[in-house]
TrEMBL record:
Keyword Isomerase: yes
Domain of life: Bacteria
Taxonomic lineage: Bacteria, Bacillati, Bacillota, Bacilli, Lactobacillales
Protein name according to UniProt: ATP-dependent DNA helicase RecG
SMART domains: DEXDc (SM00487), HELICc (SM00490)
Keywords associated with the record: ATP-binding, DNA damage, DNA recombination, DNA repair, DNA-binding, Helicase, Hydrolase, Isomerase, Nucleotide-binding
Residues in Helicase ATP-binding domain copies: 269-430
Keyword presence, Cell wall biogenesis/degradation: no
EC main group: isomerase
Catalyzed reactions per annotation: Couples ATP hydrolysis with the unwinding of duplex DNA by translocating in the 3'-5' direction; ATP + H2O = ADP + phosphate + H(+)
Organism: Limosilactobacillus rudii
Domain (Helicase C-terminal) ranges: 449-614
Length: 678
């Protein structure tokens, strides 16, 4: 019996050599071949000359009405031109430096040329000529991405053969109701039209079907995993509602509506008997920490322990300091697990955790290491979760007895990415800042406006402000980063001292030296802190209101936004100065985006547009799936719809017993092993 999983060797003309050739394109089976979609189509359909725009790339078909004339000029340069009649109009066709074309141009014959249209002079600068009348088939043909091992025409013939022999056993995955609703093709027709379309229109329609199908299948898999997780045992964290309410009422401020909403979402998850797996997103300063504190408090009132994992020791220490204050006088006992502990201290802390004497433990990924045991870990919170790999995420979920997991991030992840990337997680968003925050004012200066920047800085320092000055990022070398920061430090010291004290902070300094500098900055003994990007995370000084970033165009948008987030934390007006002479349009666009908006989500969306989805977190790191046809950015709406449709199908009782859905059931079974994305 034939099956789509048959090897390509079943095709005529595919021997060991061809098998190896096809494998270089990732093609092993008939199915691989049939879903090796074209990257584009050659379109030789003539353009309507009356509506062609100046400089447009067009295809023209007409009759040659003058002998072709070849003229030589300059050093080895030549021009070939002839007249061509299209309908009633006669236009001029010119080829540069392709003298051999002359042989293909015969008076009174029909030809097709492609090139750039000059609307005023009514002529085309052509680069391609097709002799004779292109027949319908060739007018519009699929073009595949190939390599030196295999030619277009060879690949095409294999695809055609595969379709002819296996086309009638291609199953359709998408349920009829969905195909009807969105006017999609069945799978067999889709595959036919994507490879051998008659017109641009049918090719487009086929690609639309393919994109939707791709999104739908991907979402179906993600959500099937999520459902499977939910059926696993989790803890029902039955927190003490009155105590929790009292805790919230005793906070020094009222929660924003956005905070209330996410607190409800989290609490609802915690009460449920399945394992919470939730991503909490909120811009820097939106108040995630207090939300985390509420969740921790809830877990503790239910008799559970909580763990908070930060990406660096500095951040862990800061969380410990903040949360110790928040929980002072409650029965939450906070401990910090750091590398700075002596062996003895470490051991006694581990023992206290095992006994359950400590009910909030804060640290880096040391928290999930093997010697750490918990009495009854109910909740794990990670901060800046994108810095942890998928493996670590999974390891966390497995630590203890299926704790609930809350992952916090200040790196705004556009909805698109959140859906694709963290599709196995639920997402909560704090999309509102606490009242009274003044938006940071951002300005972009050129490097020759250095004096202006210093002038502004002095003015602000005079008013009692404190400033960060960040030196350029040099990707290749930390040593150069340090050098840069040191140079800038010396220059600013010369500019500002002795009136103001300037400090220096970089990654090559000893830890206690760093600490000392930061303490001085916090205490106001240093007014200007020159630093490499180490300040991106880890320095928290609410009195700092100025952020100056040198060579700002060397930073990505996300990083610029993160750096800017170091200021604007109090109720005083804050400023961000970007100093940059970007050379590219993209660099300019980044500066303009920063000036235009303070909203991290808008910044992130813009970042996506400028760089493309693959780059935002780095493809590897983001685990972003690659789609063959669908574009999760351009086709976001479709992705969202497919997500909802997949969810609805899975929620339909007995969906997997319905005949029509058997191909989908098989599909899920076949891909079960691939469902771990790491
Ligand atoms: P994030 O962790 O999201 O960057 P934080 O939780 O550190 O933000 O909050 C930033 C600051 O805002 C903190 O000083 C915090 O006490 C304060 N804050 C948080 N929520 C509110 C609120 N609802 N009203 C006023 N201030 C708040
Ligand atoms: Mg739970």
């Amino acid at each position: 019996m034939r099956s789509l999983t048959d090897s390509v060797t079943k095709l005529k003309g595919v021997g060991p050599k061809r098998v190896a050739d096809l494998a270089t394109l990732g093609i092993d089976t008939i199915e691989d071949l049939l879903t090796y979609y074209p990257t584009r189509y050659n379109d030789f359909t003539p353009t309507d000359i009356t509506s062609a725009k100046d400089k447009q790339k067009i295809t023209l078909q007409g009759i040659v009405v003058s002998e072709p004339l070849l003229t030589h000029y300059g050093y080895r340069r030549n021009r070939l031109s002839f007249r061509m009649q299209i309908g009633r109009e006669v236009i001029v066709v010119t080829f540069f430096n392709q003298p051999y074309i002359k042989k293909q141009v015969t008076l009174n014959q029909q030809v097709t040329v492609m090139g750039k249209w000059d609307a005023t002079r009514r002529q085309i600068t052509a680069n391609k000529l097709i002799k004779e009348q292109a027949d319908q088939q060739n007018e519009f043909g699929a073009v595949y991405s190939v390599n030196k091992h295999i030619r277009q025409s060879v690949l095409q013939s294999f695809i055609r053969q595969a379709y002819e022999e296996y086309g009638n056993i291609i199953p359709t995955y998408l349920p009829r109701a969905l195909r009807q609703r969105y006017r999609l093709m069945d799978r067999r027709q889709m595959i036919k039209e994507i490879h051998f379309p008659q017109t641009q229109m049918t090719a487009k329609a086929a690609r639309r079907t393919a994109a939707y199908e791709e999104f739908f299948l991907f979402q179906l898999r993600l959500q099937a995993i999520r459902r499977a997780h939910r059926q696993e045992d989790g803890n029902r964290i039955l927190y003490h509602n009155d105590e929790l309410k009292e805790f919230i009422a005793n906070l020094p401020f009222e929660l924003t509506d956005a905070q209330k909403k996410v607190v409800n979402e989290i609490c609802r998850d915690m009460r449920q008997p399945y394992q919470m797996n939730r991503l909490l997103q909120g811009d820097v300063g939106s108040g995630k920490t207090v939300v985390a504190a509420i969740a921790i408090y809830a877990a503790v009132t239910a008799g559970y322990q909580a763990a908070l994992m930060a990406p660096t020791e500095i951040l862990a220490a800061q969380h410990a300091e903040k949360l110790s204050r928040v929980f002072a006088g409650t029965h939450v006992h906070v401990a910090l697990l750091t590398g700075a502990l002596t062996v003895k201290q470490h051991q006694s802390l581990i023992a206290a955790m095992k006994r359950g004497d400590v009910n909030l433990i804060i640290g880096t990924h040391a928290l999930i290491q093997d010697d750490v045991e918990y009495a009854n870990l109910g909740l794990v919170i990670t901060d800046e979760q994108h810095r942890f790999g998928v493996n670590q995420r999974q390891r966390l979920r497995e630590k203890g007895d299926h704790p609930d997991v809350l992952a916090m991030t200040a790196t705004p992840i556009p909805r698109t990415l959140a859906i694709t990337n963290y599709g196995e997680m639920d997402v909560s968003v704090i999309d509102q800042m606490p009242a009274g925050r003044k938006p940071i004012q951002t300005q972009w200066l050129k490097s020759n406006q250095h004096a202006e920047a210093i002038h502004f800085l002095r003015e602000q320092l005079e008013k009692g402000a404190q400033a960060y000055v960040v030196s350029a990022l040099i990707e290749e070398s930390t040593a150069l980063d340090v050098q840069n920061a040191t140079d800038l430090f010396q220059q600013l010291s010369a500019d500002l001292q002795p009136d103001y004290k300037v400090g220096l902070l970089h990654g090559r300094m000893e830890n206690d030296e760093k600490d000392k500098t930061m303490q001085q900055f916090k205490a106001g003994k240093i007014q200007v802190l020159v630093a490499t990007t180490v300040v991106e995370v880890g320095v928290d000084n609410p009195n700092a209101t100025i952020m100056v970033i040198f060579d700002a165009d060397r930073f990505g948008l996300a990083q610029l936004h993160q750096l800017r987030g170091r200021v604007g934390r109090g109720d005083r007006q804050s400023y961000c100065l970007l100093i940059a002479d970007p050379k590219t349009d993209e660099g300019k666009a980044r500066m303009k985006t920063m000036v235009a908006t303070n909203d991290g989500f808008k910044v992130a969306e813009q970042d996506l547009k400028l760089r493309g989805s693959g780059d935002v977190l780095g493809k590897k790191q983001s685990g972003m799936p690659e789609f063959k046809v669908g574009d999760p950015i351009a086709d976001l709406k479709m992705l969202q719809i497919a997500r909802a449709d997949a969810g609805n199908l899975l929620a339909t009782p007995n969906w997997d017993n319905i005949d029509e859905n058997q191909p989908l059931v098989l599909y899920l079974q076949r891909h079960e092993l691939e469902t771990h994305f790491d």
